[in-house]
């Protein structure tokens, strides 16, 4: 197994720079997720680690060895693609043992390894079938099995679940997580799905326009986003963002376009007149029993329920506000409500820099 380190890696395609001075350290045995919107550079970065793309500048290290100039086949990595990339003319068994045959491993060792992995992934009854005879989930398991039998230092996953339906995606996600717990092989996983990122990653790297926006654990990114971008990108339902201005006494936040104020949370030293954005996760807003001092008036636009979770979508003078709860709601479209914000859970961002303002320690 091996740690992976990227040092000042950049990548350009002609005049277009898609990766900009990226430095990341992924510990041995860690499960790291690269996430970001389309065009953020996450797949390109994965291909640079794999040796499928050449870095314009910077270095890639695997197990402390500089592999920047090594071809993919010499990097001791295994990659699982979104498209499965199976050989259509080969059986499941042949697809899984192909790399071992190329490496001229003993026949008995190859058979034992393939059988072990097939049992692990529930493929033992499918070993003689062709890929066209398999479902999407079965093909993805074969692709994973082909990677696992090689026992590489690093697993690379490039959006491997995006072709699966929601139920199967959840199932295979759990299988990948269980396999990582068993093998403890360093894994780097690219996705645009934040549910996958939050449920699978030990470390998450958020990318934006080819740059690292923030690195941290799932809960660090959720509770302490360093920028408006990360706050808005991580979390479902999405965080509420309310524009405000610091009042004359520096003790309250005047909500933009309204006569309403919220108390400034304790520990902040802000200048009067400073323009900020208040970030409030939907679960930290409650529907009050009645209007009161400090509540915000709103009108219910819609109520969405998944059975276990309820999201109330409200329209207000501050814009759309989402309220999330585990409780079911009797509210209906058009109801007038009063919303109470838990100020102690508010995140304050500077409008000019879009960076989070930290309270005093």
From TrEMBL:
One GO BP on record is:
carbohydrate transport
A GO molecular function assigned to this protein is: ABC-type transporter activity
Alphabetical list of Gene3D superfamilies matching this protein: 2.40.50.100, Nucleic acid-binding proteins, P-loop containing nucleotide triphosphate hydrolases
Family per record: Belongs to the ABC transporter superfamily.
Which NCBIfam families does the entry link to? PRK11650.1
Going by the UniProt record, its keywords in alphabetical order are: ATP-binding, Nucleotide-binding, Transport
Instruction: Give every ABC transporter domain span.
Output: 4-234
- Which InterPro entries does this entry report, sorted A to Z? AAA+_ATPase (IPR003593), ABC_transporter-like_ATP-bd (IPR003439), ABC_transporter-like_CS (IPR017871), ABC_transpr_MalK-like (IPR015855), ABC_transpr_MalK/UgpC-like (IPR047641), Mo/tungstate-bd_C_term_dom (IPR008995), NA-bd_OB-fold (IPR012340), P-loop_NTPase (IPR027417)
Question: Cellular component terms, GO, for this chain's entry?
Answer: ATP-binding cassette (ABC) transporter complex, substrate-binding subunit-containing
Q: Which PROSITE patterns does the protein's record reference?
A: ABC_TRANSPORTER_1, ABC_TRANSPORTER_2
Q: State the name under which the record lists this protein.
A: Sugar ABC transporter ATP-binding protein
């Amino acid at each position: 197994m091996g740690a992976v380190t990227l040092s000042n890696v950049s990548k350009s395609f002609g005049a277009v720079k898609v990766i900009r001075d990226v430095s990341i350290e992924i510990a041995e045995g860690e499960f790291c997720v690269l996430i970001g919107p389309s065009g953020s550079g996450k797949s390109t970065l994965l291909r640079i680690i794999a040796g499928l793309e050449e870095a314009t500048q910077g270095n890639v290290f695997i197990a402390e060895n500089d592999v920047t100039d090594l071809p993919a086949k010499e990097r001791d990595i295994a990659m699982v693609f979104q498209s499965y990339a199976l050989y259509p003319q080969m059986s499941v068994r042949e697809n899984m043992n192909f790399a071992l045959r190329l490496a001229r491993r003993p026949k008995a060792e190859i058979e034992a390894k393939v059988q072990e992995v097939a049992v692990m992934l529930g493929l033992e009854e499918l070993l003689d079938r062709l890929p066209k005879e398999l479902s999407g989930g079965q093909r993805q398991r074969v692709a994973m099995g082909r990677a696992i039998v090689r026992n590489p230092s690093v697993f690379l996953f490039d959006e491997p679940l995006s072709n699966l339906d929601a139920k199967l995606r959840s199932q295979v996600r759990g299988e990948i997580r269980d396999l990582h717990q068993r093998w403890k092989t360093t894994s780097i996983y690219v996705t645009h799905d934040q549910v996958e990122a939050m449920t699978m990653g030990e470390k998450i790297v958020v990318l934006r326009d080819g740059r690292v926006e923030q690195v941290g654990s799932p809960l660090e990114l959720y509770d302490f986003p360093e920028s408006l971008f990360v706050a808005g990108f991580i979390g479902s339902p999405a965080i509420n963002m309310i524009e405000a201005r610091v009042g004359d006494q520096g003790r309250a936040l005047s909500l933009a376009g309204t006569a309403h104020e919220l108390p400034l949370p304790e520990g902040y030293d802000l200048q009067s007149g400073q323009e900020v954005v208040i970030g409030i996760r939907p679960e930290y807003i409650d529907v009050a029993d009645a209007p009161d001092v400090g509540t915000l008036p709103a009108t219910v636009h819609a109520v969405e329920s998944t059975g276990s979770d309820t999201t109330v979508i409200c329209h207000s003078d501050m814009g759309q506000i989402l309220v999330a709860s585990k409780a079911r709601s009797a509210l209906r479209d058009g109801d007038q409500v009063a919303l109470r914000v838990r100020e102690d859970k508010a995140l304050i961002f500077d409008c000019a820099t879009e960076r989070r303002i930290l309270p005093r320690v």
